[in-house]
Design goal:
Helix content: 10-25%
CATH topology: Thiol Ester Dehydrase, Chain A
CATH architecture: Roll
CATH class: Alpha Beta
Distance between the termini: 20 Å
Largest sheet: 6 strands, antiparallel
Radius of gyration: 18 Å
CATH superfamily: Hotdog Thioesterase
Shape: elongated
Structural class: alpha+beta
Number of helices: 4
Number of strands: 8
Strand content: 35-45%
Number of domains: 1
Length: about 160
């Protein structure tokens, strides 16, 4: 995170360096997280909300919604400060879901700048970030990339 006359700000497009890596803080998934996400989205799949059903199902216990896990990782990335007042838009996302996240698991995100492409007519450039969501035991829960349109440094 940088500072300017208006306070904290994220990185401008020109400040992203290919190969740069970042790691977020951890976040433990709770039962309340699953319940609230189900209520917010309407996704009441019993694999997320029914302990009895889940005990005998494929995962063996309630599993966090994949999109809940991903949403937390995006929020964790935002908390790094790199996007503060400099992100213009979310352009795309591609993720693979590899390992379930259960109640009590702690996740963090590992982020690597993999590509930058100027988009001057849009006011900045496109930054591609490789994203890995990692559990406390080192297992990769999800991996993929997200592309963001970032503001250019003011003239």
């Amino acid at each position: 995170m940088k500072m300017d006359a208006d306070g904290p700000r994220g990185l401008y497009f020109e400040e992203f360096e290919i190969g740069a890596t970042m790691r977020t803080r951890g976040r433990t998934i709770t039962e309340a997280d699953l319940v609230q996400f189900a209520a917010l989205t309407g996704d009441y799949n019993p694999m997320h909300t029914d302990a009895e059903y889940s005990r005998d199902a494929f995962m063996g216990a309630r599993v966090a919604h994949g999109m809940l896990t991903l949403s937390y990782a995006v929020g964790q990335a935002y908390q790094l400060g790199i996007l503060e007042r400099t992100v213009l838009g979310f352009r795309g996302l591609e993720m693979k879901f590899s390992s379930p996240v259960f109640i009590g698991d702690t996740i963090h995100a590992e982020i690597k700048v993999s590509d930058t492409k100027p988009a001057r007519r849009l006011g900045g450039g496109v930054v591609t970030l490789e994203l890995r969501i990692v559990k406390q035991d080192g297992a990769i829960a999800q991996r993929g990339s997200m592309t963001l349109l970032m503001m250019s440094r003011p003239e």
